Automatic annotation (TrEMBL), chain A:
Protein name as catalogued: tRNA (guanine-N(7)-)-methyltransferase
EC number: 2.1.1.33
Protein task: Catalyzes the formation of N(7)-methylguanine at position 46 (m7G46) in tRNA.
Keyword Cell membrane: no
Protein's organism: Polysphondylium violaceum
Pfam families named in the record: Methyltransf_4
Species lineage: Eukaryota, Amoebozoa, Evosea, Eumycetozoa, Dictyostelia
Similarity-based family: Belongs to the class I-like SAM-binding methyltransferase superfamily. TrmB family.
Active site residues according to the UniProt entry: 146
Pathway where it operates: tRNA modification; N(7)-methylguanine-tRNA biosynthesis
Gene Ontology CC: nucleus; tRNA methyltransferase complex
One GO MF term attached to the UniProt entry: tRNA binding
From TrEMBL, chain B:
Acidic residues biased stretches: 409-427
Biased amino acid composition, Basic residues: 385-402
Associated pathway: tRNA modification; N(7)-methylguanine-tRNA biosynthesis
Organism, scientific name: Polysphondylium violaceum
Function per UniProt: Required for the formation of N(7)-methylguanine at position 46 (m7G46) in tRNA. In the complex, it is required to stabilize and induce conformational changes of the catalytic subunit.
The protein's name: tRNA (guanine-N(7)-)-methyltransferase non-catalytic subunit
Annotated spans, Disordered: 146-169, 385-445
Highest taxon, organism lineage: Eukaryota
Family: Belongs to the WD repeat TRM82 family.
Primary subcellular site in the record, as a coarse category: nucleus
Length: 270, 465
């Protein structure tokens, strides 16, 4: 009798609707591991990492979607890179629950797939080093972050010179960082900081344009669809983590990519 | 100052002397500097006299740090003493005319200083503020310092303009997202250790401090102090609010040894004070405990012996400094007559006829009432920058997030809500609904009209077998 009730339904977004903002500076009550070695990833990837199998534990998460929201990108990435472990990170608990249920449902529906994606509730500005070793990640995504327009709240923005050092630490040399925003002011802020950071260099234009992740960051997430609905404009860029700050190409001409496409904009026009 | 006001308005309360909050000494041990509340004292251990310091030169707020320049002989080599204070100033002091210490330079900064670190080149100064940002200044080349001009019009003194200043600050070197509690250079000067209230110890390169070498993770509460062991440069010793002392191989971010003091004291807050290189002793104090704990370093196994020797003192120690083969221990004062300082032999016996302790105990310092003293002690202990509750690995608060399980959900906006209050909403719902859908949190589903309808339907379907 109770079988029907117990069986989980498909997660419906309205039940998980919450405020769009969370203060990253406050102390939330949630678990985070003391160090990366102490986090039990087998709970996140039960089919791939087994708690009693040391060999399977060597497989590490290589893609992180910081501020994954409702998980649109995380799920698309899981399909695009079926062999790579991908994790979405989000601070708002109800959203995390939604994504969690969504992934469970997807796994039930198509057994064998979506095993490589998961979501964790954490504060990406504080606890990334608690989850990832140095140079562990190959890709990191910052999609439509909270713009925090007020000057006094700029410290809450997810991209800042001091935080970029931390992101550089968890990224492997050569790894890519993607960011996109529908707010030009915020885009320029992130772009400037990435551009000025000694450990990041923008990838060449043809690399960015042929990157399979780029269409996903433009269209796959819920936030992106919201922008599409109102025919909004999106600004995005891809940066590479470089190993030695001395190798940063000072003559590199930085450029801006937009969606829908616009006549070529280079650094000079900003 | 508020402390002085309180003492004048409530004279009937027993007053206590302000304790010594900081002790530093020159490389040859000739000069010893003490900070008492806002005052700096400099003592010459050869002539056993205090230097004169003009009251107008002194800081106007609590002195946070004292550092000596890297000169063998501070007087002969034209070395200096540097102090940082909550009054947003860094001062450089020099010995003049043989009996005076004069402030030779004041560097006005636009943030309250929490801790400082001075590089061996005697010029690069790193200062951390309460936001967790670390700024690098040059002590002698002002052209490198982009100091903001003091606000000419007070209208400008709002949050937005402060943020403007912060963002345009070119002296910003690196930063944590939470307050930095301690900042130290490695012995080779090529690395920096910074510890924050989120249990992290970051090892970054210097001067390329944007390049993080590794994180030393393992403490379960805020860090209190980072101690660099001079004759074992590969080791780093840290104390924490979790009651342990951890010994790290900082290059690899590996914890080599954990010395636990929780079995001796409840809720111990450990502070590694100093390391005696000759006898290989690590001196540890615990907040609010009148004892010193001595851990001996065993050369053969190159680990610390896990059982400490305990040395009892009259009051709880605040700072311990090893100067000229004896320990200077500044004590928490309880009465106006109580001692500020005791001198201990390296064998940890109290030196009876200690000239320095006698002269220091004679100095007249500000007397404080209980509340002011408490505030001062909290400032000394950097209490305001600590996070007292840590949720790392706390099974009671964290409900495991398994695939089917529902984690307890937090109020998104409240910073300090108590987890036990969260179930209020569920208990007020009628019994039938709770019984039928225990599997899902009602709180979430009742938020919408559709959700409520769905619950009704589910209830109806549950009744029909």
């Amino acid at each position: 009798m109770s079988n029907q009730v117990v069986k989980k339904k498909k997660a419906i977004k309205p039940y998980h609707r919450i405020k769009a903002h969370a203060n990253p500076a406050s102390d939330y009550h949630f678990y985070y591991p003391v160090s990366p070695d102490q986090h039990d990833w087998s709970k996140n990837y039960p089919d791939i990492i087994k708690a009693d199998d040391e060999e399977s534990k060597k497989k590490r998460v290589e893609i992180a979607d910081v501020g994954c929201g409702y998980g649109g990108l995380t799920i698309s990435l899981g399909t695009l890179f079926p062999e790579t472990l991908c994790v979405g990170m989000e601070l708002r608990d109800k959203v995390v629950q939604y994504v969690d249920e969504r992934i469970v449902k997807l796994r039930e529906k198509t057994p064998g797939s979506y095993q490589n994606i998961s979501v964790i509730r954490t504060n990406g500005m504080k606890y990334l080093p608690n989850y990832f070793h140095k140079g562990q990640l190959q890709k990191i995504f910052f999609l439509f972050p909270d713009p925090h327009f007020k000057k006094a709240n700029h410290k809450r923005r997810i991209i800042s010179p001091t935080l970029l050092s931390e992101y550089a630490y968890i990224l492997a040399p050569g790894a890519l960082a993607y960011f996109i925003s529908d707010v030009e002011e915020l885009y320029l802020w992130m772009y400037e900081h990435f551009k000025n950071h000694p450990l990041f260099q923008q990838v060449e234009r043809h690399v960015a344009e042929s990157d399979p992740c780029v269409p996903l960051i433009i269209n796959s997430s819920e936030e992106a669809r919201k922008v599409n609905r109102i025919d909004g404009k999106k600004w995005y860029a891809v940066f590479r983590r470089i190993e030695d700050p001395a190798t940063k190409d000072k003559s590199f001409v930085n450029y801006t990519l937009t969606s829908p496409k616009e006549s070529t904009t280079t650094d000079a026009s900003i | 100052m508020s402390t002085e006001q309180q003492t004048t308005t409530t004279p009937s309360i027993t007053l206590s002397k302000a304790p010594i909050s900081f002790i530093a000494h020159s490389q040859n041990g000739e000069l010893i500097a003490f900070a008492v509340n806002t005052q700096l004292f400099v003592y010459n251990s050869k002539s056993n006299t205090f230097y004169d310091i003009a009251p107008t030169d002194q800081h106007t707020a609590f002195v946070r740090s004292i550092e000596f320049s890297n000169h063998k002989d501070t007087i002969a080599d034209n070395g200096f003493i540097m102090t940082g204070s909550s009054d947003k100033c860094v001062k450089v002091w020099k010995v003049v005319d043989g009996n005076k210490v004069q402030c030779s330079k004041t560097l006005p900064l636009n943030k309250k200083i929490i801790c400082t670190a001075l590089n061996n080149d005697n010029d690069s100064l790193l200062v951390s503020d309460k936001c967790g940002d670390v700024f690098r200044y040059s002590l002698f080349d002002d052209s490198k310092n982009k100091l903001s001009t003091p606000n000419q019009n007070n209208n400008n003194n709002n949050k937005a303009s402060k943020q403007d200043e912060r963002e345009s600050d070119e002296n910003l070197s690196f930063g944590h997202y939470s307050s930095i509690i301690d900042l130290k250079f490695s012995k080779c000067q090529n690395y920096l250790f910074s510890a924050d209230r989120d249990e992290k110890i970051r090892v970054s390169k210097f001067p390329n401090s944007f390049d993080i070498e590794i994180f030393c993770l393992g403490h379960k509460k805020y860090i209190t102090e980072v101690l660099v062991v001079p004759n074992k440069p590969e080791l780093l010793v840290t104390g924490s609010g979790d009651g342990t002392i951890k010994v790290w191989n900082w290059k690899q971010g590996k914890c080599l040894q954990t010395l636990d003091l929780n079995d001796k004291l409840i809720d111990a807050v450990t502070i590694p004070q100093c390391f005696d290189e000759k006898n290989n002793n690590l001196i540890v104090s615990v907040e609010d405990s009148p004892n010193l704990f001595i851990y001996n370093f065993d050369q053969e196994s190159s680990t610390f012996k896990s059982t400490p020797t305990t040395v009892s003192l009259k009051a709880s120690p605040i700072k311990v400094s090893l100067v000229n083969n004896s320990f200077l221990v500044s004590l928490m004062t309880i009465e106006p007559t109580s001692d500020l300082l005791v001198e201990l032999e390296t064998t940890f016996e109290i030196r009876q006829q200690s000239i320095i302790a006698e002269s220091v105990n004679k100095i007249s310092t500000v007397s404080l009432d209980k509340n002011a003293l408490k505030t001062l002690l909290e400032t000394i202990e950097k209490k305001s920058n600590r996070k007292h509750v840590s949720y790392a690995r706390n099974p009671q608060i964290h409900k495991k997030r398994t695939n089917g399980g529902q984690p307890k959900d937090d109020d998104e906006d409240d910073l300090d809500d108590i987890p036990s209050d969260l179930d209020d909403e569920n208990t007020t719902t009628d019994a039938a609904t709770t019984a039928a859908s225990q599997e899902k949190p009602l709180k979430l589903r009742k938020m919408t009209v559709e959700g409520a309808k769905e619950i009704e339907q589910e209830l109806a379907s549950a009744k029909q077998p």
